[in-house]
Amino acid sequence: MTRASTYDLGGKRVFVAGHRGMVGSAVVRRLASEHCTVLTADRRELDLTKQEATLKWLEDNRPEVVVHAAAKVGGIAANNNFPVDFLCDNLAVELNVIRASHTIGVRRLLFLGSSCIYPKHAKQPIAESELLTGPLEPTNEWYAIAKIAGLKMCQAYRRQYGDDFISAMPTNLYGRGDNYHPDHSHVPAALIRRFHEAKIAKAPSVSVWGTGTPLREFLNVEDFADACVFLLKNYSSDLPINVGSGDEVSIADFAAMVAHVVGYEGKLIFDTSKPDGTPRKLLDSSKIRELGWRANTSLQAGLAVAYEDFLKGHGRHLEVGGYYART
Ligand code: GFB
User: Which residues are known to be catalytic?
Assistant: First the structure.
């Protein structure tokens, strides 16, 4: 099908857009063992929402490979509350990076999407063919539309110009370098922080958003970074490819796991005034498994590392506004 005749990253100049984000920083760590030259640009040096600046930076630095891990991201509340930021900023960055990559002749580009691009009531587990078969989940449709546009840009450049641009769709990610903002983060970081603070304060109970019934599949970011490198080397197709762990859990059970890892022993109270979002989001990752890749970090072990990272203060506490990559 879709297996590229193995692409050698050795000696290549690889630009990781969004290298300060959770995903981008994990990709940089993973690329360290690939004997390539990793290129990064701080936001002060390059604002990816600026078209001319992005083109100039790429012309000056001449990467052969691009990992597009730059995005405005956040959890269910941030997505719901900042539709302009999630739609427009993500569209601008995608257009600038993908178009400039074409202009300077980048050989391989990996665009990162998200499992939220699939319809709210997609058939489970969600195969790549479910894309655009039904309405999106309203809490994240702005972000989803931007991500769908990004993967369509990759398909369009491949169709019209033969560019080897591919797209990967990760499931819900967590791990080192996450954003621990109390309102804007995703559920793993939000609960690590809230339970930790409740443990310190000896609070008798902690609130968890929603009913606790939604099902989510969680993938450790180090595993995802490994999948990104695997796909750069082994995958070439206009079809996006799912990257999941198969670790599906209800939010209630997930919250109990996080409480255990953090050592919080109080009561969990479900705040049903907060949204649940999509009821279930389990990816069908059989395509990438057939190519020979699978995740190998257990949720328990990955959460322990994430909590350690939080304790070391490596997590970021950002407002929505920075470009930190995560899907
Ligand atoms: O991680 P999260 O915001 O992502 O929420 P989504 C997952 C589930 O956890 C939802 C519940 O059912 C939340 O209601 N939850 C419980 C909490 N407590 C909390 C909490 O304190 N904070 C948060 N954030 N959630 C996002 C999309 O949806 O998934 C993005 O909005 C992106 O666009 C990302 O695609 C992967 O899975 O609901």
Answer: 143
Which residue minimizes the CA distance to atom 18 of ligand 1? 209
Question: What's the pLDDT tens digit per position in 133-192?
Answer: 999 999 999 999 999 999 999 999 999 999 999 999 999 999 999 999 988 999 999 999
Reduced to 3 states (helix: H, G, I; strand: E, B; else coil), residue 48 is: coil
Question: Coil, strand or helix: which one is 180?
Answer: coil
Q: Which residue has a Cα nearest atom 16 of ligand 1? A: 209
Following CA atoms 214, 168, 85, 56 in sequence, which dihedral angle do they give, to the nearest 10 degrees? 170
Token pair recorded at residue 281? 């989001």
For 118, the token pair is 């699939």
The stretches in the chain having pLDDT less than 50 are 1, 319-327
Q: How far is CA 96 from CA 28, 39, 146, in A?
A: 21, 17, 13
Span from the CA of 192 to the centroid of ligand 1 (angstroms): 13
Q: Whole-angstrom Cα distance, residue 179 to residue 187? A: 10
